[in-house]
Amino acid sequence: MFFNLERSLSVFPKRHVLNSVKPNSVGAESLVKCIFGMSDIESALSKICPHGSGPCLMGSACLHHSLVKSLKILIRRARHCHHLRLLEKHCFITSPNPNAIKNSGCIFEGERRGNSVLKKSQCCTTDSCNGSPAAIDSHSEAIKSYCLKSQVVSFVWAVCRSIIPPDLLGTPSNWRMLRRNISKFICLRRFEKFSLKQCMHKLKTSRFPFLSDKQYFCCMNNQAPKGVDGKSSEINKGSTKLNDAAHLVKQKVLESWIYWLFSSIIVPLLQANFYVTESENGKQDLYYYQKSVWEKVKNKTVTCMKAQNYHYLDTATTRRIIRKRLFGFSKLRICPKEYGVRLLANLKASSRMPRQEFYLGDRSGGRLGRTKMHQRRVRFEHFKSVNRVLRDTHAVLKSIRFKEPEKLGSSVFDYNDVYRKLCPFVIGLKNGSAMMPDVFIVVSDVSKAFDSVDQDKLLCVMKDVLRTDEYFLKHAYEVLCTKKSLWVHEKPILVDQNTSSRFKSSVVHRSLHSVLVNQECSRSVKKQELFFNLNQHVKRNVLQLDKKFYLQGVGIPQGSVLSSLLCSLYYGHLDRNVIFPFLEKTWEPARVDLSSEHNFEDASAAQSGSEDKIGLSSSHFLVRFIDDFLFISTSKKQASSFYSRLQRGFRDYNCFMNEKKFGVNFNIRQMPGPPSNRVYLGEDGISFLRYCGLLINSCTLEVQADYTKYLSNHLSSTLTVSWQGQPSRHLKEKLCDYMRPKCHPIFFDSNINSASVVRLNIYQAFLLCAMKFHCYVRDLSNIWKLCNRSYANMIKRSLGYMYVLIKRRMRSVYNGSDFQPILQLEKGEVEWLGLFAYIQVLKRKQSRHKELLSLLTSKLLSHKITGSVSSQLSYAVDRSHSSLMWKIKY
């Protein structure tokens, strides 16, 4: 259903069964078998009507003949359906609202579902395309011209009404339920499943005329019990058994019909008329574009690609390129975003190309004339996926990352790296005092980082990285076992010939649910082989879009196992050769005014007192997460100089900053344009700078989680709800899953954060979890409901889980760190903050959670902390400090 580019002139795709059968008895009979199969249903149908062995007592009124008659009508109507007229009527596209992509989706409980954010990848924005402003506006308008889901539901239902006979749709009272089920199916988010039970929700056999009791008169006559000797009780018993059997048959027939309706009518209907995709701003929500509209988006994107050094390749050239290597090409698809599109390449999948074509000629010597057409046979040449071939190169570069981190400059790869660098810096700044000196912060983002990498420069950098002539790799296997599946992943590990420590160190990084199997099997890889694969990957990146091939001329491929490492090594070279020397030149002795220092213990205000000044050297801190810079200095002059240097860009590396994504915490004359969205000011007056999912306090360097990404969308767009299996178990697991991303030590270490902010971070994490809990339960309640006491127990379990997880994470970070993490937190405080957060969130949805609120309030009032709340807890639950959270739509 997703990403289908094929266009169809008929209401269904070309190869649909309704396009291959004729509207006669033979076609209808074959469709009966297609829908109801050769199972016990057909056996039951044959018993109900012995049409194969004798005359039917009911004629066309029996179930089988009724189905054949209805399906004849269905086939005939499908061939003459005016679907384009219905599409134009129900999916009429008006001039799009500029903010529409942020507000699309299904309307539910008076609010709209929102959209999703994807990882960075090849970007094709409208402002980078050559063309007139009118052409650019046309592209932007096409991107925003998707159909609302309510329109799609209306169109699908109109087609169903026009081609499906009324007997198969049920009575008018049944239509409402069926349409609602279709609406729920179309409103599904990514990765959600729709079961037959959901398709059948509130549908009853009695509301379908073709399953009415009169259709079973033939069955009653044929299956009436014989030899009962006039005993009425035995007759009644036989009649009861017959009625039960008839009911089971009816249910199975209805299930088969509804399953076929959804899988073979509704899904193909969507495939033939809409391009279904996610959006960068839509999180898990899906978007439906008319095929004609998507064609415009695709054509304009191809024009942009050619303007951005993507070169068209013919099939022969493509074949010559990929035959020289083990991996083939990557399929490309277009993902819409707010001001353009992103190009997403799948480097995980294998590929194939036609190798040889020949025709089986007519061997009849012309006797059959033209009655026997030539048949074409195509043989394919198969190629491994890009990522699979690059595994050895990835293993080598990953090892170099740990053994020679200086080659990556200021690179960090996750919160752990940021934390291990930021914490010692903050400790050093405070120097045992509760006071924080003035700090000056610069955050910036490289414009189109992956797409602007100079390929020749990158390969030059890699020559300095890969210096050993031969590398030895040990092949280990990671066996990952979860509740749903068992996976075996091959993990090549670089081996140091002088020591066996590499294997041991790699064990640390494995999943908790996995076992690393070392089979003591190793092999050597030549540097030339690694360089050949790397050169082919960078300089010969072949992409396929809509059966056409393109070669990427500038930048590096994304989605490969090497993407982030290559980018980090490239900009790491920039750090070592340009930025680090520049920062050394701008170093200066500074005089720090203690009168303007900030009290770390009280995040709400700065202490003013001492007028003393002390002489210190300027201290600075620099990290870069792929292409996002964070610079902190105690010298305003140094921070201003660094900002100016970034603003000029680095021509030798084709590296320039995105002017819209600069952020600073001090006044600077060169700051162009409107205020940056990297700066966030809360209602409590505290200013933050946004950096890679973190909010960094502009004065104290305290760290909070950045929840601004949730503001533009309904929170339900971030969820994946599971209605199958054991929903209660899924919900219990989800509540724990929601806590994990916000349980990093960077939020709770008292070396960085005050006691008040530590508790505020916990409170905000619970607020978000409670909002997601409400959205999940609301969606789940359409099919399944649990008692409120069970919900309360789930919540209580998640509170304890968070405390245990925080302690575990703090212990794990301590291993191998040069500093001592400090956790000053009691389990009771976490429980109290969690209960308080859930109550505050659910109070805004009282009509749904009245009884649950009563249970949680009772637990909160009986908690030992209630009545003696500390100032730190009071600060944490103060509404002004979480004003951002209350702007989230849920």
UniProtKB/TrEMBL annotation:
It catalyses: DNA(n) + a 2'-deoxyribonucleoside 5'-triphosphate = DNA(n+1) + diphosphate. It comes from the Eukaryota. Its EC number is 2.7.7.49. Its main location: nucleus. It is found in: Nucleus; Chromosome, Telomere. GO terms for biological process: telomere maintenance. Belongs to the reverse transcriptase family. Telomerase subfamily. This is Telomerase reverse transcriptase. The lineage of its organism: Eukaryota, Viridiplantae, Streptophyta, Embryophyta, Tracheophyta.
